[in-house]
Write a structure and sequence with these properties.
Blueprint: H1 3-25, H2 30-52, H3 58-61, H4 64-79, H5 86-113, H6 116-138, H7 151-166, H8 171-192, H9 207-210
Helix pairs in contact: 1-2, 1-4, 1-5, 1-6, 2-4, 2-5, 2-6, 5-6, 5-7, 5-8, 6-7, 7-8
């Protein structure tokens, strides 16, 4: 199986697992598990394909991706209670999925347009949109609002992959560099609390105070 296809399935499966773990935290029924696993697993790739005009989107052309999501959701429906900290597991699996999917998204963007800039954007969106949807639907605090870097990790991974590709490195090396770069940044952020500088403006006032 080609390396990019492996990353594609890996990204879908790992993100599906984070969706199922969110369902377990909300004590949803089995349909809730399957729904959140599927939306999270295919969300980023769907956004990528729509932006690139690659329709029908990937999971319509190959429903195996839906079966992967459903299988992961079903497995975690019966096993999620065995884990001591489902949220810790969720954020670390999310880091793995982000690392795989930023490379896959960048590769598809580069192949479709030849533009490194577009590849960075598609890599970032592919890696983060599924997690954003997951948190929105599950009522969890959004990963975008967490203080440690998140989108930045996807951009670093996609950037490393694109740069290595542009200088002619072989695909397996560029993929490994992208995945490891993204995971190093996101993993370091989770472990050491790495953040970017924030704006100097104070917190927003309640709307009722200014209307």
């Amino acid at each position: 199986m080609p390396i990019l296809e492996i990353l594609d399935y890996a990204g879908v499966a790992v993100f599906a697992a984070t969706g199922a773990l969110s369902a377990s935290r909300k004590q949803l029924d089995i349909i809730g598990y399957l729904f959140l696993a599927s939306v999270t697993g295919i969300g980023g790739g769907t956004m990528r394909d729509v932006i690139l005009g690659a329709t029908p989107v990937f999971w319509v052309l190959n429903p195996t991706y839906l079966l992967v999501c459903a299988s992961v959701g079903l497995i975690l429906f019966f096993t999620a209670h065995l884990f001591d900290s489902r949220y810790r597991m969720l954020v670390w699996l999310d880091a793995i999925g982000l690392s795989a999917y930023c490379v896959m998204g960048a590769a598809k963007g580069l192949a479709a347009t030849g533009s490194p800039t577009v590849a960075l954007v598609t890599g970032m969106l592919t890696a983060t949109f599924g997690g954003i949807l997951r948190d929105l639907l599950a009522g969890e605090p959004s990963v975008l609002l967490r203080p440690e870097v998140y989108v930045t990790a996807a951009l670093v991974g996609a950037g490393a992959f694109v740069f290595a590709t542009m200088i002619g490195m072989p695909l397996i090396a560029t993929s490994a560099l992208g995945v490891l770069s993204a995971f190093a940044v996101r993993g370091g952020a989770l472990k050491y609390g790495w953040t970017l500088p924030t704006g100097r403006a104070g917190p927003g006032r309640d709307p009722s105070d200014v209307m």
